[in-house]
Design brief:
By secondary structure, this protein is of the alpha/beta class. It has a single domain, classed as 4-Layer Sandwich (Metallo-beta-lactamase, Chain A). 20% of the residues lie in helices and 26% in strands. The chain has 8 helices and 18 strands. The chain has an 8-stranded mixed β-sheet with strand order 2-18-1-3-4-5-6-9. Strands 10-11-14-15-16-17 form a 6-stranded mixed β-sheet. A 4-stranded antiparallel β-sheet has the order 8-7-12-13, with no helix packed on it. It is globular and about 50 Å long.
Length: 328
């Protein structure tokens, strides 16, 4: 299996902008290499500061020898923030080789139509075939959001330039970058929730057979990059399948290698996620010896507090515009 000699993961869309974060260099107390979009980039009138929103998008540049493969992992919620930040951060969307949508929720696919409009060519878009199945939400006060993923429409997006690659299995994208395919749920505290009858509060999905059930987000997939001499960098969208399950899946795809980093949404901030799952996840990450932990998006304040206090050398605070570097 191919590996990447060098990898950059740049945060294009995230819930958090912070212009006061310092760069982190190999050899300092953190043992990480992270460059930030900082105060100068926010204050210099010649430059445009980036924006934040409740979504996630990561630009992944993997280099092997003289080849570089660029993947866009998720596209944020609105598209306007992604387009703004691409310009503000000096990123050229025409260099992107492949788009991967982790799952069919709007904070992950929402910017796809706007992004396709930034290109003058078709682009491969990988996702799970169930990502398009109809979803709706019922809130505790009775408010509903019917078919809230209607905009993630295969036909209209294909007309706009998406060339969908639908797979339940892992895909080799290039230079050591792979999708995980479906993620088995074997970790006890991250296991499947009990099925619910339609009508009460919850998130629902209409299956291929036309039956309505709880939305288990079985379409979710992650991205894993095998970096030569360092190990696996695992990128999660929301980790509905569980971030520890996702790490296990990454190793099943790429082999029992060190986990160099886990970056993305950990789903620990969701109101229905048991509070004790934060401590259990921290301990599981410790046991797995994850070397860099970057909770984003839906991870929640309690998860950030727990990781930063319990595993301070591994924890890295995310912010829009940050680049995380691996390899040589």
């Amino acid at each position: 299996m191919f590996t990447a000699d060098r990898l950059e993961v740049r945060i294009l869309v995230e819930n958090w902008v912070d212009m006061l974060l310092p760069d982190l260099s190999i050899g300092d107390i953190s043992q990480h290499c992270v460059t930030r979009t900082g105060l100068i980039e926010h204050f210099d009138p010649k430059l445009t500061p980036p924006e934040a929103e409740n979504g996630i998008s990561l630009l992944v540049r993997a280099t092997r020898g003289k080849r570089t493969y660029t993947t866009l992992f998720d596209v944020g919620l609105t598209g306007s923030v992604l387009a703004h930040n691409l310009r503000a951060l000096g990123e050229d969307p025409s260099t992107i080789d492949h788009v991967v949508i982790s799952h069919g929720h709007p904070d992950h696919y929402g910017g796809i139509d706007r992004f396709l409009g930034e290109l003058d060519r078709a682009v491969p878009v990988s996702t799970h075939p169930h990502a398009f199945l109809s979803r709706y939400a019922v809130m505790a006060d009775g408010a509903t959001s019917p078919f809230y993923n209607a905009a993630f429409n295969q036909e209209s997006l294909s007309a706009a330039g998406a060339r969908f690659v639908l797979s339940r299995e892992p895909l080799e994208l290039g230079c050591g970058v792979r999708t995980t395919g479906e993620i088995p749920r074997t970790v006890e505290f991250e296991g499947p929730r009990p099925a619910a009858e339609p009508g009460g509060p919850g998130l629902y999905q209409v299956g291929e057979d036309g039956r309505v059930g709880l939305d288990e987000v079985l379409d979710e997939q992650a991205l894993v990059i095998d970096v030569t001499g360092e190990g696996l960098v695992v990128l999660t969208g929301c980790a509905h399948a569980g971030v520890i399950n996702t790490i296990h899946r990454a190793r099943a795809v790429c082999g029992e290698k060190p986990i160099r980093a886990v970056i993305g949404g950990f789903h620990l901030g969701f109101p229905t996620t048991p509070a004790e799952n934060v401590a259990k996840t921290v301990e599981a990450m410790r046991e797995l010896d994850v070397q860099m932990i970057v909770p984003m998006h839906c991870s929640g304040l309690h998860a950030h507090a727990a990781f930063s206090s319990t595993l301070p050398r591994q924890y890295v605070q995310p912010a829009v515009g940050s680049s995380l570097w691996f390899g040589h």
